[in-house]
Amino acid sequence: MDHKADVVILGAGVAGLAAAERLLDQGLRVIVLEARDRVGGRVATLRDPVTDVSLELGAEFVHGRPSALLKRIHRAGLTVSPCNDTHALLWRGELEEREDAFAFHAPLMSARGPDRPMAAWVKEQARIHAWTPLVCAMARSYVRGFYAAAPDVASTLAIARMERTADASGGTMPSRVLEGYDRVPLAMAAKLLARPGTLFLNAVAEEVRWSPGSVRVRARTRQGTPLGTFQGEHAVVTLPVGVLQAKPPAPGAVRFVPRVRTQERAWNRLAMGSLVKVLLRFRTAFWREQEATARFGFFHSPTSSFPTWWTLSPHRRTRHLVGWSGGPAAASLSRLSEQAVLGHALRGLSQLFPFSVRELNARLEAWRVQDWQGEPYTRGGYAVIPSGAMDAVEALAKPVGRTLFFAGEATHVGGDEGTVHGALETGRRAADELLSRRSKA
C-alpha cells in the first residue's frame, strides 16, 4: 500500500513534531513515521502507580527560560516549577555544599581555540589557575554527566559554546513540568492525532529512496510486517545520531538511496553519548529526614558509577531519588544486568548517606533502570561533539537540495545541542528551510 503526502517526517520526537506543526499550519500534507508506540522520542514519562508522581525516563528538566518551549508548555495548560537547585558534594568522605568545586565553570565559558579535548583543557587550566584535585575531578565529572561525554573526546569549544548559549537564555537552572514532560509532545501532536493517516506509530523506516523533488520511504512494523511505501516531495529526517550511524539490518537502521555522503560523513564524525538512569522509590524519604541532607536537591559523588543524584523537587512528599550516569561509566553499566546496575546505584548511595547497601535494599520499594543504549530507536542519550568536529553539526543540518531536510538536537548549530528546546528549534528551522526552497521551485 502506498501513502502520499507533501512531506514525510521520520521521527515523532520534539523535532519531528515541531516540523509537522509548522508544515501543517502552512497547509501542507504531512505523514509522520515513528518506530515506537508513542510520540516524544527521548521524552518518556511514567506515572508511579503508588504516588502518582511523574517519573522521567529521558529528558527531565526545562533548563533556563527557553521561550519557544515554554510557550508550548503554557499553551498546553501545563505547570513549570523550579527545582531545588542546592547541591551537595561528596569529597574524601565529607558531604557538604562546595561552591568552590565549580571554579572551572567561568573559565570554561570563556574558552577559546584551538579546539582540544576537555581532558587536555582541564589539565592546562589546572596549571594556570592552580586548581585543586576537587575542581579537576568535578570538571571531568561535569563533562561525563551533563554532556554524557568522555573528557578525552569531547570538544572544549563545543561545550564552551553550549555553556555560553545556556547562560544567555537564562542559565541552566532546572525546572520541571509537574504534569509530566510527555504532556508537551502529546500537545504538539494533537493535530496529527486528530487527522487519520498523518501519524503512523509502530512504523520503522527502513529505506529512504529519493531523487530531486521525490521521496519514497519504505517502512515496516516492529514485528516485521511491511507497511508499504510513504511518498512525498520532501522528507524531514529527525533520527538521533546513534540511529543514523546504525548499519542495516540492525533494528532502526535506515538506508538512503542514493547515499547522502555529506551528511553521512558528518554523523559519523559525531558520537552518541551513553546514558543510564535509575529511578528508586524508598519506603521513606530518608534524605529529608536527616538535618545534614534535608535542604539539598542534588547530590554529587564524582568517583561513583552514578555521580549525580536528585530528588523530584518541586514535587512534595515523594519518596524517589533519581541517579544519572553519563559517558564512559554509563557505557560500562550498559554491559551489565539490571540487577548489577541497581547494585552499583545502591553502593553509590551508601557513600552519600549513612546506610549500608543491605539497609538501602531493605528500604527500597521499587526501581527502574533506563539504559538508553539498549533502545534501538535512540541508541544513546544525546549527541556528543568530539574535538575538531564542530563543523560536522552544520554539515549534518545542511539540506539536500529541496528534497531532504535534517533536524534533531544534533543539528542545532547555535549551542543548544542535547536539549529539548534545541530539538524543537531545529524542527522549526528544517520546516522553514523546506518552505523556502519549495516556494522557489
Question: What is the spatial order of strands in the main beta sheet?
Answer: 9-8-19-20-21-18-22
CA-based gyration radius: 22 Å
Overall pLDDT metric: 96
Q: Total strand count, please?
A: 24
Which spans of ≥5 residues are poorly predicted at pLDDT below 50?
Answer: none
* Helix vs. strand class: alpha/beta
Detailed description of the structure:
By secondary structure, the chain is α/β, with parallel strands linked by helices. It is 34% helix and 23% strand. The protein contains 16 helices and 24 strands. It has helices at 14-25, 67-75, 105-109, 118-129, 133-146, 156-168, 183-188, 190-193, 241-245, 261-269, 286-289, 328-333, 338-352, 357-363, 390-397, 420-440; strands at residues 2-4, 7-10, 30-33, 45-47, 54-56, 62-63, 80-82, 87-91, 94-96, 174-177, 199-200, 204-211, 214-220, 226-232, 234-237, 255-257, 271-272, 275-282, 298-300, 308-310, 320-326, 364-371, 383-384, 404-406. The strands form 6 sheets. It has a 7-stranded mixed beta sheet. A 5-stranded mixed beta sheet has the order 1-14-13-12-16, with no helix packed on it. Strand 19 (298-300) and strand 20 form a beta hairpin. It is globular.
Q: What's the layout of helices and strands?
A:
Elements: E1 2-4, E2 7-10, H1 14-25, E3 30-33, E4 45-47, E5 54-56, E6 62-63, H2 67-75, E7 80-82, E8 87-91, E9 94-96, H3 105-109, H4 118-129, H5 133-146, H6 156-168, E10 174-177, H7 183-188, H8 190-193, E11 199-200, E12 204-211, E13 214-220, E14 226-232, E15 234-237, H9 241-245, E16 255-257, H10 261-269, E17 271-272, E18 275-282, H11 286-289, E19 298-300, E20 308-310, E21 320-326, H12 328-333, H13 338-352, H14 357-363, E22 364-371, E23 383-384, H15 390-397, E24 404-406, H16 420-440
